[in-house]
Design brief:
The protein has 314 residues and is of the alpha/beta class. It has eight helices and 14 strands. The protein has helices at 15-27, 51-64, 85-97, 108-122, 129-140, 149-154, 189-198, 307-312; strands at residues 5-9, 34-38, 73-76, 100-103, 143-147, 178-182, 203-207, 211-219, 225-233, 254-257, 263-266, 271-276, 283-289, 292-295. The protein starts with a strand and ends with a helix.
């Protein structure tokens, strides 16, 4: 599975997620080997618009430095209130062309507003330009990554929508009909269950440190939406003193609650396959756990034997 969206939560830069799925994807690029990092969701600190953004970039830059000798190119784009059209034109170019784009952490609402306002201010009032370019990336097979707040933003809806707090909570939808919590622990399981009841056509996931969802999706010739989710568990971070912050090192899986309240824990290399109608009236899903295909609704073994069989039959 190649994947066009990766949403994840992590304590630091574990190799399985950051090397295997992000850096190597960029290095295998046919057009370029560039990673664009966007710390735009970081908030103002000590009166500085860039202090938190610079710190956030530093938590990734040190890791990418190891790969410069292999031809990796990596650079950030900072949000500033003084941005000019020519600055944002460069962003549009890299957003369209970089092999990998990472939406970084910070505050989900702050970043989402800024991403959308860039189009309103610098693209003739097109509030949706940033999201449109992300979907063009997906159609071209390029990888867009969401870390922490960025993961929240790449989903269909910010998780805060489940609390009915109002405001613009519409995410970019590169992970269609999915919401997730980040840096998840069992104390938030009730939040997952609540969100699943409120949003029966969504899949709701709790992503602990260090774990993520690698996703690809699109439209079948039948007009139905397809989505394949690979569950990623990263246990590669080597510093034992940090293990308290890394729940996957203590056996945590990716938590999921269905609309019926059923709970499931997904591990490394498990999959979910979804088939949905555009109006969401048709909802079918299968899980592949330990190589066995199980129907999501019945929890019974399926007649299908592979992801390709499921997609071909719809």
């Amino acid at each position: 599975m190649r994947g066009t969206a990766l949403v994840y939560s992590s304590h630091n830069r574990g190799d399985h997620i950051h090397n295997d799925f992000i850096v190597q994807r960029a290095l295998r690029g046919t057009d370029n080997k560039r990673i664009l990092f966007l710390p735009i969701s970081e908030t103002v600190q000590n009166g500085s618009e860039t202090e938190r953004q610079d710190f956030s970039w530093g938590t990734f830059r040190w890791y990418f430095d190891f790969y410069e000798k292999h031809g990796l190119e990596y650079f950030p784009f900072y949000w500033r209130s003084t941005l000019r059209r020519e600055d944002v034109d460069k962003l549009w170019y890299e957003l369209a062309n970089a092999e990998v784009v990472i939406l970084g952490g910070g505050h989900s609402v702050t970043g989402l507003r800024r991403y959308k306002e860039l189009g309103a201010r610098f693209a003739d009032g097109e509030w949706g330009k940033f999201g449109r370019l992300l979907h063009e990336r997906q159609r071209q097979g390029k990888l867009t990554v969401g870390f922490s707040a960025g993961a929240d933003q790449l989903c269909e809806t910010l998780f805060r929508e489940s609390y009915d707090v109002g405001g613009d909570n519409s995410g970019f939808g590169l992970v269609r009909n999915v919401m997730c919590t980040l840096h998840h622990d069992p104390s938030r399981d009730s939040d997952l269950a609540h969100a699943a009841r409120r949003n029966p056509h969504f899949m709701i996931f709790g992503l602990p440190n260090d774990a993520g969802l690698l996703v690809d999706q699109g439209v079948l010739p039948s007009g139905l939406w397809w989505q394949v989710i690979r569950f990623v568990i990263d246990k590669s971070w080597p510093i034992e003193s940090d293990y308290w912050h890394i729940r996957t090192r203590r056996g945590a899986k990716i938590d999921h609650f269905g609309k019926d309240g059923n709970h499931w824990g997904f591990g490394e290399g498990d999959y979910m396959v979804r088939i949905q109608s555009p109006d969401n009236r048709l909802q079918e899903a299968w899980m592949i756990v330990g190589g066995e295909v199980v129907h999501y609704g019945t929890r019974q073994p399926s007649r299908y034997r592979s992801i390709s069989e499921i997609l071909a039959d719809h």
